[in-house]
Hints:
- The protein is α/β, with parallel strands linked by helices.
- It has 2 domains: about 20-110 and about 135-175, Rossmann fold (3-Layer(aba) Sandwich), CATH 3.40.50.1980; about 180-300, Nitrogenase molybdenum iron protein domain (Rossmann fold).
- It contains 10 helices and 10 strands.
- The strands form 3 sheets. It has a 4-stranded parallel β-sheet with strand order 2-1-3-4, covered by helices on one side.
- Strand 9 (about 245), helix 9 (about 255-265) and strand 10 (about 265-270) form a beta-alpha-beta unit.
- Helix 6 runs parallel beside helix 10.
Amino acid sequence: xxxxxxxxxMLVAALPAMAATKxxxxxxxxxxLAQQVGGANxxxxxxxxxxADVHHFEPxxxxxxxxxxxxxxxxxxxxxESFLDKLRDSLGTGVKLVxxxxxxxxxxxxxxxxxxxxxxEEHDDHHHGSEDPHWWHSAENMKRAARIVxxxxxxxxxxxxxxxxxxxxxxxxxxxxxxxxxxxxxxxIDRKSRQLVTAHAAFGYFCKEYxxxxxxxxxxxxxxxxxxxxxxxxxxxxxxxxxKAIFPEDxxxxxxxxxxxxxxxVKIGEPLIAxxxxxxxxxFETMFAHNVRAIVAALAPAPAK
Length: 305
């Protein structure tokens, strides 16, 4: 009996391991999320890598080659990747393209807001449509995204559905813990000081989730220009509301914000990570923790000595 069991054990050991499901991603945060949810059952291929510009990236032939054999291609959606229709035609039927953000509740994209005499003026940006595509600045949205990724993985690899559901649950727990930490940190900032002045309108979901009023100088991408009237209105807003700090962003030119700081005397905070592609912070956890710490450091009252 023992020799038979030994022989069976040797045969099982000699069988090839189940191949991992190949998943390609168009955003570093999605790459990390797919790995968290999929674990050892997935092979994640990052098409858009840390340090790249999500607003101006387009897949090259070598990127299409990297996608070959993938069961899923995860995109952010909400109009962020303007090349998706063209990419679908190039992919054919072998790869399922999933826009993760499409199933996440949207907030409207507003380029700039000014409040004078009780009136609100808005300027909508139309480069990427009416939806703000930066949904990953919300812990609740990341929980939704984890469930979406688990469902999509289960659809192409049903044998591991339970593992994907468990991975999404574990990821959601981590995101919830991070949200609780952020709420405690942000509570250090006076409510009247919770205005987030940034170069680009990339933090709407963060502001909504944590009770900030957003104020952006430019539009949605990194290279948009702002009119002199727009800048003058921002300077007036900063003076009127006694705003404490303005925040540049990683991988963006801080020139306009520097001009505003010189004109108002307001301090410049540590650069925020807007698009989640910074080389040193391209997961939700690292990006979000960096941004919360930078915002609290600039806007919270200094501790009494």
